[in-house]
Design goal:
- This protein starts with 7 loop residues before the first helix and ends with a helix.
- A hairpin with a 2-residue loop joins strand 21 and strand 22.
- It has a nine-stranded mixed beta sheet. A four-stranded parallel beta sheet has the order 4-3-5-6. The chain has a four-stranded antiparallel beta sheet with strand order 16-17-19-20.
- It is globular, with a radius of gyration of 23 Å.
- The protein has about 525 residues and is an alpha/beta fold.
- About 30% of the residues lie in helices and about 25% in strands.
- The longest helix has 18 residues.
């Protein structure tokens, strides 16, 4: 069966094996038939209330209702705008406003953040759990947190869609906000086609077996959620955690129910470092996939010497609807005696044209460093309402990733720098410019610069260098940042300088700042 829409990965599996489990989450167990029925019920309500292409946001923790909404929005031909639960209120407001979201589905725990109705008068607030429950029960969906949802007296209860035949897989299905060098998040438009193409790449790098028990501890608001869709495409069961919890992960592994999972290297380190950890816990686990950061070689060696695990590292990004390159299990085994191999992020999968290009867009030969560029069906459509940044990113017909790297003669990709000056802390992207903009508006700051510093647990932490206008304590700056930024974006260390170093071009010399940290500034 050829798939055209994201929700069809679930629909297809529900048709082929309706009675096998599709989802375990807390105390909820749903078969493929049951999950698909929930999706259809919720999509029916969405179709009555919204036009094709309308944006609806979601702000919630992982749950069966969240996953139901993801598939239901696709079936209703809406565009979902998932919000990061860790952001500050001002960041949510910016993302909702910039994408002109019509309604926000949210958990009760976030309701108090939106009590000020004057500032949200045009935004319909809907309790996610109530909406799913009433939709499934075929009851009127009086589900809003602050006013009746879906009571605008539509002229008809019939779906407001155009005919199915008029739709196509190039329609947007998600808008995911991604930080960039300009600081303000940009809304990457992912289509049904790009997501499905991303799944084709993922299944080449991380094959799924029907009957697998797959543990997913990451947020559903990340592009990493494509791993969940991949499992459902192949009839596997997803064990969906509300969030990562080491005790829960180990308990599920010890139960023998888990055969594959996605974990960040930091999560793996936490598990292995626990006093009660025993490698017997991984007895049923066949494969672990990871990304966002390289795995420390000592941790990899320990895992491979004590287990038969298949490790797979992926390289990708939001703008690619997932991953395009994989360091496969056999590469990890070879890496035990060839550490240089572990500095790479693997080889691009078939169907992906990954090239290294210079500033003029000319392809560079093997072993020459340049910008990593990708041409593939899984590319985003562009950035929402941002023609300038869209042109910069995909205007040439391929995605300029902003990463600097090279391909060796065997086709392995090694990253050597990040053109966009992104900091990756605990798997989360932090744009240094965004943090700098917030610090710069503090009245006690004359100049500032933000860089990442290596950290054993988090990969990197955010560090800020400040040239003050007056004496200012780190605690004061921290309070200022936490009012405007998510906690993970706030600097963990502050350094005071009389002036910032600059290079020959007159730009702030960030390599020099990183060196200061290494030297114990």
């Amino acid at each position: 069966m050829t798939l055209f829409y994201l929700h069809e990965v679930l629909e297809q599996s529900a048709a082929h094996h309706p009675d096998i489990p599709a989802l375990y989450s807390a105390d909820v167990v749903l078969s493929y038939a049951q999950l698909w029925a929930r999706v259809q019920a919720c999509a029916s309500q969405l179709s009555v209330r919204f036009d094709v292409g309308e944006r609806v946001g979601v702000l919630a923790w992982n749950s069966p209702d969240y996953l139901t909404l993801i598939y239901a929005a696709s079936l209703a031909r809406l565009v979902l705008v998932p919000l990061n639960t860790r952001l500050a209120k001002a960041e949510w407001e910016y993302q909702l406003g910039s994408t002109d979201v019509s309604a926000l589905f949210l958990d009760h725990v976030f309701a108090e953040q939106f009590e000020d109705q004057e500032r949200h008068s045009s935004l319909l607030l809907v309790c996610l759990s109530d909406f799913c429950e009433t939709s499934i029960d075929m009851v009127g969906a009086d589900t809003a947190l602050t006013r009746p949802a879906f009571t605008q007296n539509p002229e008809s209860d019939e779906p407001r869609h155009q005919s199915h035949e008029s739709l196509n897989s190039d329609l947007p299905v998600w808008i995911l906000h991604t930080s960039g060098s300009t600081g303000k998040p940009k809304g990457a438009i992912l289509t049904h086609r790009s997501f499905l193409a991303g799944l084709e790449s993922a299944e080449k790098g991380r094959p799924v077996r029907q009957g697998d028990g797959y543990l997913y501890p990451f947020p559903l608001f990340h592009v990493s959620a494509h791993n969940v869709f991949l499992q459902h495409k192949h009839g596997a069961c997803v064990y969906l955690l509300r969030s990562f919890d080491a005790d829960t992960v180990l308990d599920l592994c010890r139960s023998g129910k888990i055969s594959s999972m996605s974990l960040a290297p930091t999560m793996l380190s936490m598990l292995v470092a626990r006093p009660d950890f025993d490698y017997a816990a991984f007895g049923s686990v066949r494969a672990i996939g990871y990304g966002a950061a390289a795995m420390p070689i000592d941790l990899m060696r320990e895992l491979l010497e004590n287990t038969e695990l298949e490790l797979s590292q992926s390289y990708g990004m939001t703008e690619l609807s997932g991953s395009v390159s994989f360091l496969l299990p056999e590469d990890h085994r070879a890496g035990l005696t060839n550490p240089g191999l572990m500095r790479s992020v693997g080889r691009p999968v078939n169907g992906v044209d990954l090239s290294i290009r210079d500033e003029e867009g000319k392809r560079l030969p093997a072993l020459h460093s340049g910008e990593v560029c990708v041409r593939a069906d899984q590319m985003m459509l562009g950035y929402w309402n941002n023609e300038i940044e869209t042109s910069k990113a995909v205007g040439a017909g391929y995605l300029r990733t902003g990463d600097i790297g090279f391909l060796d003669k065997r086709g392995y990709l090694t990253l050597v720098d990040r053109k966009k000056d992104m900091i990756i802390s605990g798997g989360e992207n932090v744009a240094s410019r965004e943090v700098e903009d917030v610090l710069q508006c503090h009245e006690g700051v004359a100049q500032c610069a933000v860089v990442g510093s290596p950290h054993e647990r988090w990969g990197e932490i955010v560090c800020a260098f400040v040239v003050p206008k007056r004496p200012v304590e780190a605690a004061e700056l921290d309070d200022h940042c936490r009012r405007l930024l998510a906690g993970f974006k706030c600097p963990k260390r502050y350094f005071t300088l009389t002036e910032l170093p600059v290079n020959a071009a007159g730009k702030i010399d960030k390599p020099a700042l990183r060196l200061l940290i290494e030297e114990g500034a």
